Amino acid sequence: MSALRTLYERADVVPLLAEIFRELGFEGATLSRITERTGIGKGSLYHFFPGGKEEMAAAVLAEVDTWFEQFVYEPLRRDDPAEAIAAMWKNADAYFRSGGRICLVGAFALDETRERFATTINDYFQRWIDALAGALVRSGRPASEARAAAENAVLGIQGALVLSRALDDKALFKRALDQMAKRLITS
Amino acid sequence: MSALRTLYERADVVPLLAEIFRELGFEGATLSRITERTGIGKGSLYHFFPGGKEEMAAAVLAEVDTWFEQFVYEPLRRDDPAEAIAAMWKNADAYFRSGGRICLVGAFALDETRERFATTINDYFQRWIDALAGALVRSGRPASEARAAAENAVLGIQGALVLSRALDDKALFKRALDQMAKRLITS
DNA sequence: GTCTATACAGTGATAGAC
DNA sequence: GTCTATCACTGTATAGAC
Asked: According to the UniProt record, which residues make up the DNA-binding region (chains A, B) (predicted)?
């Protein structure tokens, strides 16, 4: 007979932690709030993450990184550039739920949490920009412009997340992404 | 004879608090860290801000709002639009220290701190966008484009802050602002 | 107006029963 | 693998001496 209570594996816990860190930030995500929202006791959490809250956040960041590597960066490096870039905008809108979900890496970059995860944060954005700039070059864009254009696109997504949350306006997020998508391939 | 110790007024404390909230975030800025960094005891802090940490953050947000109203929004509504827009970019670069200093309002928008200060956060960005869109219209830009262009500029500054901090690259911030300034008046 | 002392809930973390 | 109990510490907040 299977147990009535839900049993977790570490891999099941990470997505739950991700949403909590996204909503509350690193400092705001206290162990009791994590316990409260997941129903997982402190004992279990420390069983999965002996390094405590820092290991939890690191695991979340690693999973975010894997997701973007697989569904955004790799396609940008490998696939037809125009298709991969179109898929990037589509994936970004879906992943960030049209501004309803923030970018954890971007949020961590803003306060002192940055110090804890500096290289992870740096790599996430650096690889995004590199992959996008590479795709732009392959699509015929001069290398001299490609990097700045890529930076602008990545930065625009982060800004759209901030502004759409500040104004509580998901339509703004979609509109901004559409405009950036057009500008990226035309200008 | 004047006292050896520094005596503060409430108005002197607010800028100190601003930098601490910027660096640590709302949750990360604990009273002991505030005391430690400012040298002001808890008794004094609660004398100035009976409402505790929330009142401290509200006072900081109010001061930020006043600064932008005076040096950015009002000029955009009142002065020659081209000059006011040029001044906006210059002021933004100076205020945010080329990405070395974040936007507290934007940072608060990202996590649950948003709930505490929702209307303040909303107003800050809404008035910025309105003032900028108005200046663009006065400079001859079609009203149909002005709002989206204004949103894009405001969002771009927020994104540039995130990205320049993530990559620890102030040059990127300046570069991005230059590019956005050009695009705002040409496209 | 600022200090020290202190209240007491909440913090991350650990140990041991099951 | 999960629970309860508990640790030492830090959190916000208050009171009273000066």
From this structure: 30-49
For chain B, what is the domain count?
1
pLDDT tens digits along B33-77: 999 999 999 999 999 999 999 999 999 999 999 999 999 999 999
Rounded to the nearest 5°, which phi and psi values hold at B40? -95, 130
Here the CATH number for the domain that contains residue B180 is 1.10.357.10
Chosen from B162, B174, B183 to mutate, greatest number of chain A CBs within 10 A: B162
Residues 24-83 of A with CB under 7 A from strand C: 29-33, 42-43, 46, 50, 52-54
Q: What is the pLDDT of residues A66-124, one digit of tens each?
A: 999 999 999 999 999 999 999 999 999 999 999 999 999 999 999 999 999 999 999 99
What is the spatial distance between Cα A34 and Cα A28, in angstroms, rounded to a whole number? 10
Give domain status of residue A122, yes or no.
yes
Could you tell me if residue B42 is inside a domain? no
Q: Which nucleotides of C are covered by protein (CB under 7 A)?
A: 1-6, 10-17
Cα distance between residue A142 and residue A66, in whole Å: 29
What is the average pLDDT value for chain B, to the nearest integer?
95
Residue ranges making up the domain that contains B109: 61-186
Q: What percent of chain B has pLDDT over 70?
A: 96
Tell me whether residue B72 is in a domain: yes
Sign of CA dihedral A88, A94, A100, A103: negative
In a domain, B13, yes or no: no
> Would you say A132 and A154 are in contact if contact means Cβ atoms under 8 Å apart?
yes
Residue A41 amino acid letter: G
Count other Cβ atoms within 10 Å, centred on residue A182.
11
Minimal-distance CA residue of chain A relative to B99: A110
Handedness of CA B145, A171, B111, B173 (dihedral sign): negative
Q: How many of the other CB atoms lie within 10 Å of CB of B7?
A: 8
pLDDT (tens digit per residue) in A27-52: 999 999 999 999 999 999 999 999 99
- Of the partner residues A155, A161, A179, the one whose CB lies closest to the CB of residue B160: A155
